[in-house]
Amino acid sequence: MRFSEAFIYTLKEAPSDAVLPSHIYLIRGGFVQSVGAGLYNFLPLGKRVLDKVRTVIKEELDNAGCQEVDLAFVTPSELWKESGRYEKYGKELLRFKDRKDAEYVLGPTHEEMMVNLARAYLKSYKQLPVNLYQIKTKFRDEIRPRFGLMRGREFLMKDGYSFHKDEESMIKDGFEKMEKTYSKIFNRLGLDFRIVEADSGAIGGSGSKEFMVLAESGEDTIVVCEECEYGANIEAAVRANPKAPHEANEEYEKPEMVFGKFLTPDVKTIEELSEFFLIDPYYLLKVVAKKALYDGGEEKIVLFGIRGSDELQEVKACNAVDANELADVSDEELENAGLVPGFMGPKDLPKEITFIADKLLEGEESVIAGANEKDYHFVGLNLKELNLTYKDLAEVKEGDACAKCGGKLKYTKGIEVGHIFQLGTRYSAPMKAEFLDENGKSKPYVMGTYGIGVSRLLAAIIEQHHDEKGPIWTKESAPFDLEIIVSNIKKEQELQTGKKLYEELSKNFDVLLDDRKERFGFKMNDYELLGIPYAIIVGKKIQDGIVEIVDRKTLQKQEVKADEAVEKIKGLLA
Ligand code: ATP
Ligand code: MG
Fold first, then answer.
1. Which atom of ligand 1 is nearest to the CA of 417?
2. Which of 295, 305, 330, 534 sits 20 to 30 Å CA-CA off 247?
3. CA 364 to CA 349: how far, in whole Å?
4. Could you give the CA distance from residue 473 to residue 73 in angstroms, rounded to a whole number?
């Protein structure tokens, strides 16, 4: 493509809300244009990158035996009602009516649509397994669209769904195959990523994995082990049970507590309690109150009890009570429910209040906890006498021990670019998507679901590959393989050499020829902002038959003979 004719326009400034390099460079480089909160137009350059990324994804998926389909974006609400998600899915789901008052949603993900498709055709175990995918616009009315393509409202996703006759096939032919295929995809795109265990909702176990591109700007905190391969999203991370201070530290004596109700006037927080009793927070029971939201607007107050030395992990807490969402609850609401903020605990609670305790508290015979009475705490409370429900609620901290190897756990940041999930029959069962098995018995498909954030990948690639001048596209994501920069188009020899190289190299590569009537410095700035892996500069030295090859990564220039440039570039791009 000739720059002089191309719809490529770089900008000097990025909008003031752009803080991440990827956001800034995608706009300044003329890859995308912002048209509203979380809405972007893809310009020719951005579209080229998107198509490159898409090609890599498609090639690998097709290789793995998946088949591409393209489902309607506007989807009938009935399907969402069938699966039960119409209610559950919060405000991210854009619901609307057409002129006949029929209800629709804009697909934020396509489980219902795919199950509906499959059930029309897949009637026998002989037709299974099947893996269908699409690369398609999604809409989610995100509460906080931000960081450019990282979190849009309208965005491009690859979503895939596999249908199997049993769990074994789903794991082997679906989940594990996709894990390998996704690794190939992200490797080809030149990304440094980590596969981590993710939250799998109420299902639990390791049925859900995320592909995290490691980057400081990532919105996800991931827990990794310094010694072994263990990695997990903080929402799903587990640890070896931390030792009590009296076990970990010889100088610390186990506090002896005799059961009793103590006057603790105005002593409410863990910090205050710890000072008041001169005791490590480990021996205190911290209570976090939340409102759990359920289908049909039902809500209830739940108290979560964890050790004072821990923090509540909200996703774990939400799963523990099988809620759609947890919301904050005000002191007033607590008081109306008969609770006393600052003095809440598991004993002597109003009957209708649910109390869930962290598993680290199981078997604890002596803690300090609120007495559900203003200004009082119980000391030496034996939880074993209370018949509590225990769930994993605590957030893993840096420095905790790995449950697999005992190594030290630490935090790092990641950008979620892919997610694979063992769905089971969560959608096929309620939607009665069934097949006949070997014995002629009707069964719902066992399913897997697999997503990739295609447009988010553009941002993720830049977050990992950029410098202070602009993006540095990886080989398989670059909008062009090569740019040829004619330093001064008024010099006939420069222009002719540039054109000749362009014609020759275009046979094998995507080449951009900068033949604009601009100063060399201006063109070079644009080259840096476009982030194309290599450039050939045809300048003054052409009089001696010399051109320069620039490597975008290092910005170093190398002189080569003009008639050797083609071979040299072929070698570099091979
Ligand atoms: P997140 O936690 O980042 O909101 P998610 O868990 O909602 O992601 P999935 O429903 O698993 O995401 O969607 C599959 C993939 O789509 C994600 O792995 C991510 O890469 C991408 N994705 C999700 N939401 C967005 C968005 N708002 N903008 C761009 N890409 C997105
Ligand atoms: Mg989301």
1. 20
2. 305
3. 19
4. 30
For a substitution probing ligand 1, which of 34, 92, 157 has the most ligand atoms within 8 Å of its CB? Answer: 157
Cα–Cα distance between 231 and 234 in angstroms, integer?
Answer: 9
Distance between CA atoms of residues 393 and 318, nearest Å = 9
Beta strands in 140-188 (DSSP E): 154-164
456 belongs to a structural domain: yes
Q: Which atom of ligand 1 is nearest to the CA of 153?
A: 27
Encode pLDDT of 409-464 as tens digits.
999 999 999 999 999 999 999 999 999 999 999 999 999 999 999 999 999 999 99
Q: What is the pTM of this model?
A: 0.93
Q: What is the pLDDT of residue 205?
A: 56
- Output helix, strand, coil percentages for the chain, rounded to the nearest 5: 30, 30, 40
* Number of structural domains in the chain: 3
Cβ-Cβ contacts under 8 Å for 44 (sequence gap 6 or more):
6, 7, 8
CATH number of the domain enclosing 167: 3.30.930.10
Q: Which two tokens stand for residue 549?
A: 């090859």
Neighbours of 166 (CB within 10 A): 14
For residues 443 and 424, what is the distance between their CA atoms, to the nearest angstrom?
12
Give how far Cα 75 sits from Cα of 112, 157, 435, 486, Å: 9, 16, 24, 51
Residues 264, 342 within the same domain? yes
* Cβ of residue 151 lying under 6 Å from some atom of ligand 1: yes
Whether the CB of 456 sits within 6 Å of ligand 1:
yes
Q: How many CB atoms lie within 10 A of CB 553?
A: 13
pLDDT of res. 200: 80
C-alpha to C-alpha distance for 28 and 246, rounded to whole angstroms: 57
